[in-house]
Specification:
heterodimer, A: 276 residues, alpha/beta, six-stranded mixed sheet, two-stranded antiparallel sheet, 41% helix, elongated, B: 693 residues, eight-stranded mixed sheet, three-stranded mixed sheet, 23 helices, 14% strand, globular
């Protein structure tokens, strides 16, 4: 669980379609947003960028807010208590401490629940009243019914690629959000992103993007989605820091995408032919 | 085989995956010897691309180390795939004429006639007086273009390419002087393999080599496409033609063109022999299919218009006649597509095996007491979709039993919560611990900081694969024991009066005929699996439903109705009802494939349940078709392999003589013989619960 630090400079984000306009429209209508897309395709970066656009640009009336984006990386042991808050024992008294969701609801920040389907089911229930006309957060332990700040927005993400019956959003939850679908960028734009994020030269970035695109064509062969833009960027960062490109790809791509030895060999072959 | 030699069998899957990554399409990888097409002459040391397969030498031992031999496989594959990646087969002769004025002059003003039984390449070669020479030139120059594009896109193979080109150049006969057409073509090939042009030009006595090299260099541009090649061929042909096709000193021939047609040069193994014309014809089928779809749309629109009184009144000729004309045109085109597709299949050795990804599996030879490596080829594909009405029928049939099975599954809680007290961090304060904490603090003792309690989730992590025998015998009627008449269950009650505790339904719900067709074994298997699937879908365990059949070791068919993680909805339900009796029962490879699928789920508890109606058999399951022991032994081995991979296996058969062979295939507690086929759903449910409890 983390809170994004106050940011002055815009986080880097390369738009792939009309997602900026769609998100802004949803924010102004205070419609909860669901971001769907494969792992490492830029969903979290997109939310960070949108938080900057909506809260940190000069003309924004919300510039005063210290923490415009509250991000929670959901996991299977995340409970409603973790989101809402709990009593802490301090000296002789039990003190209530807001959780990240409550903090965002009070302050008017964007609360981003990353990979929501990973969390326990009780967490998805508590967001229901926040995502309809009520915009309320019931806090059972303090017997409080907290109305959301007018600027508050809830954003969740999930990855349909590895969804299963166990890890799927219920229709009653899903239908409270407008959904923006993300995919991996095409080779040209992915190369621009890799070059920017890792600092490698454009040609190396292009080669890494080609490896990414080729590897994704094996998606039905032992791994779900292929190599992510994030992994390609990590690989670029290793190369930028002097690691031999083939070795960097071995660490960042070949061993990361699959445990199937033959798939690894085939991906290594792809890396070997694409790199000079 | 030397220790450095690499057998194709050892790296077949690796190359197939590599080819898929490069091309985006699934390719089978076969040894060249196995090519059965009639339209192409392959060479044993080269490579060849077909519609769905990549043919490669069965072994490469040219180099002193395994790695280099393996890399040669990769280079051969990449060049062949390059023809598809860099657009060779997208060639259309009309576009070639448009792009090349010298070609347009040869083609003449008349439009190109519709091409039947020949490729666009054949039409292109036909513009030249000696088509085989044009074909030879095209082959050389296009291979060079593919190499250039390949080396730019995949610079990692430049070293391999240099090495193979040098080997090829050193292998060819030395050429002292260039004196005739053969020599010109030979040096053109050498030029494309990287031999310095200047040295070759020095030996030229024909006076055309320098010009030929300059023209051929056009395909070295990165923007060069297949039309650059055909334009270059037209120009080079013109240069050769200008000196009489047979440059000096060959004289005295009555028909120099006839001689030129005989000229051949041996192409390098690294370029293989792609069946360019056939693959172009195959690519062209897509155009024809588009035309067909366009005609269908036009016919539909015209048929609607024909109903309009305005159309009836104002049309030059009656709309019905126009619709009939279009329909005739459409039918002719459809027939043409079918004939063309069959011709191409025959030429390329495509025997209509299922399309899709294929996998090689070893087979246990009980006679030799050893594995036959890569013996069976298994094709995985989605089961054909049944229709919506069949899905509705199935759901109606199983509906009365769903509640019962679901109740049974409730005894297997998907997840439970366990309260853990005295922890440093948790959801709630533990007031007993807080009291102790305060007491300790006040009496000056070090308090225990573990004052929270939390609920830990205990989750089932199960993946189950249901593997259904789709052999032809599952088409037989499902005969219940001691049944006196069709349509009555054991107790003699008509089955349409059943309640929740009755045996499984014997007849379909909707019967429009006087007498319902007998329920077949496949119907019961399918309904039982559907019932299980519906219960599991609600319950939450991960599960997959697969069927298998096939004919022969080279064609084991594996049908996917539902994959792990896929919800049981439209497509998977239709695929389930679409499962039908097919051919043989080669169980070993199907079990091995299911084992691989289960292993990939990473679940803590993995279960494989095989449903069959008889012993394993196939036309070549062992040297003697009447010897069932071979198939039983291979299946037993496959089950043992699965068990070693940590998979709980269980065989369910509705074959009443199943004890005979099942006791040799698996331990006693790992199989069940269902005497009354209608008891299968309950038995299956109990088996599943026992395995996963």
């Amino acid at each position: 669980m983390k809170a994004a630090a106050s940011q002055q400079a815009a986080p880097y984000y390369l738009p792939l379609g009309d997602e900026l306009e769609v998100f802004e429209a949803a924010y102004h209508a205070r419609l909860p947003v669901l971001l769907k897309g494969p792992t490492g395709c830029g969903k979290t970066r997109f939310v960070e960028y949108m938080a900057w656009r909506l809260y940190r640009q000069q003309e924004s009336p919300r510039q005063h807010l210290a923490e415009p984006l509250v991000t929670v990386s959901c996991h299977e042991d995340l409970t409603a208590t973790d989101l809402v808050g709990r009593y802490l024992l301090r000296a002789d008294e039990a003190v209530w401490m807001d959780g990240p969701l409550t903090r965002a609801v009070r302050s008017g920040a964007i609360c981003y629940l990353d990979e929501i389907v990973e969390a326990r089911k009780d967490t998805t229930v508590i967001i229901h009243s926040l995502t309809d006309h009520r915009r309320m957060l019931p806090i059972e332990k303090t017997a409080e019914l907290l109305p959301a700040h007018p600027d508050f927005l809830l954003v969740i993400s999930y990855n349909p690629g590895y969804q299963s019956v166990l890890k799927d959003l219920k229709p009653s939850t899903r239908q409270r959000f407008v959904a923006i679908a993300f995919g991996y960028p095409d080779v040209e734009r992915e190369a621009i992103i890799i070059a920017h994020e890792s600092g490698v030269d454009p040609e190396t970035a292009q080669r890494l993007a080609v490896i990414g695109a080729k590897t994704r064509q094996l998606a039905d062969q032992g791994f779900d989605e292929g190599v992510s833009t994030r992994l390609l960027t990590y690989t670029g960062q290793l190369i930028r820091r002097g690691i031999d490109p083939r070795r960097a790809c071995e660490i960042g791509i070949v061993h990361a995408v699959s445990d199937d030895a033959t798939v690894q060999q085939a991906v290594a072959d792809v890396v070997d032919v694409v790199l000079p | 085989m030397s220790s450095a030699a690499v057998a194709l069998l050892d790296i077949e899957r690796r190359i197939a995956l590599f080819a898929q990554a490069i091309s985006g399409s699934a390719y089978e990888v076969h040894a060249l010897e196995s090519f059965t097409g009639t339209g192409v002459d392959g060479r044993h040391d080269g490579a060849m691309l077909s519609s769905k397969a990549l043919y490669l030498p069965s072994q490469i031992a040219a180099h002193a180390d395994r790695q280099t031999n393996r890399r040669e496989y990769r280079l051969l594959s990449l060049h062949q795939l390059g023809y598809r990646e860099f657009g060779t087969f997208e060639f259309r002769v009309a576009a070639a004429i448009e792009r090349s004025p010298p070609l347009a002059r040869r083609a003449g003003p008349a439009p190109v006639a519709p091409l039947l039984r020949e490729s666009d390449f054949d039409a292109f070669y036909g513009f030249f007086p000696v088509p085989p020479l044009a074909r030879l030139l095209f082959g050389l120059i296009e291979a060079h273009r593919i190499d250039v594009r390949m080396l730019a896109a995949y610079p990692g193979v430049r070293g391999d390419h240099r090495r193979e080109a040098a080997t090829e150049l050193s292998r060819r006969q030395p050429l002292e002087y260039i004196t005739n057409l053969h020599d010109v073509l030979e040096v053109l090939l050498r030029f494309t393999l990287g031999e310095p042009g200047a040295a070759l030009i020095d030996r030229d006595t024909t006076g055309v080599v320098a010009a030929v090299f300059t023209l051929a260099a056009a395909v070295q541009e990165q923007a060069a496409d297949v039309y650059t090649t055909t334009h270059t061929v037209a120009l080079i042909y013109g240069v050769l033609e200008a000196v009489g096709l047979n440059p000096t000193p060959i004289i005295g021939l009555v028909n120099p063109n006839a001689d030129a047609a005989q000229v051949t040069i041996e192409r390098p193994a690294m370029h293989g022999e792609p069946p360019t014309e056939w693959l172009q014809r195959e690519d062209r089928l897509d155009d024809w299919a588009e035309d067909l779809a366009g005609l269908d749309a036009t016919i539909a629109t015209s048929a609607v218009d024909a109903q309009s009184p305005l159309a009836q009144a104002g049309a030059e000729r009656p709309p019905e006649i126009e619709v009939r004309r279009l329909t005739d045109e459409r039918d002719t085109l459809a027939r043409r597509i079918e004939i063309e597709r069959n011709t191409i299949r025959q030429a390329l050795g495509d025997d209509g095996k299922p399309a899709g990804v294929s996998f090689l599996y070893d087979e246990w030879d009980s006679h030799a007491q050893g594995y036959l490596r890569g013996w069976c080829r298994l094709y995985e594909r989605r089961a054909e979709a049944g229709d919506t009405a069949a899905v509705i029928e199935l759901l109606k049939r199983i509906a009365p039993h769903e509640q019962r099975v679901r109740r049974q599954f409730q005894q297997l809680p998907l997840q439970a919560y366990q309260r853990t007290r005295r922890v440093l961090d948790g959801e709630e304060l533990d007031w007993d611990q807080i009291l102790d904490h305060q007491i300790d603090r006040r009496r000056g003792a070090a308090p225990d900081e573990r004052v929270y309690q939390r609920r830990d989730r205990v989750t089932r992590d199960v993946a189950a694969a249901f593997l259904i025998d789709l052999s032809a015998s599952t088409d037989d009627a499902a005969v219940p024991p001691e049944t006196t008449s069709r349509g009555h269950a054991l107790d003699g009650k008509p089955t349409n009066n059943i309640d929740d505790d009755d045996p499984f339904l014997w007849q379909p719900v909707h019967i429009d005929r006087d007498e319902a067709p007998p329920r077949r074994i496949i119907d019961v298997l399918r309904d039982s699996i559907a019932l299980m699937a519906r219960a599991l879908d609600r319950h939450g365990d991960a599960y997959g439903v697969y069927g298998f059949s096939g004919y022969g070791r080279d064609c084991v068919e594996y049908y996917v109705a539902k994959e792990f993680g896929e919800p049981l909805r439209g497509a998977s339900l239709k695929a389930l009802v679409g499962m039908r009796p097919r051919r043989s029962t080669r169980m070993g490879p199907a079990i091995r494939h299911s084992t691989a699928k289960l292993a990939r789920t990473g679940s803590a508890l993995k279960v494989l349940i095989v449903l069959s109606d008889g012993f394993p058999q196939d036309c070549d399951y062992g040297p003697d078709r009447s010897d069932h022991e071979y198939g039983v032994a291979d299946t037993a081995r496959a089950l043992t392999e699965a068990a070693r991979a940590g998979i709980q296996t269980f065989c369910v058969t509705v074959d009443r003589s199943g004890h005979d062979y099942l006791k040799r295939m698996c331990p006693d507690d790992r199989y069940i013989v269902i005497e009354d086929i209608e008891a299968l759903p309950d038995a299956l449910s109990k088996v599943y619960q026992k395995l996963t409890a």
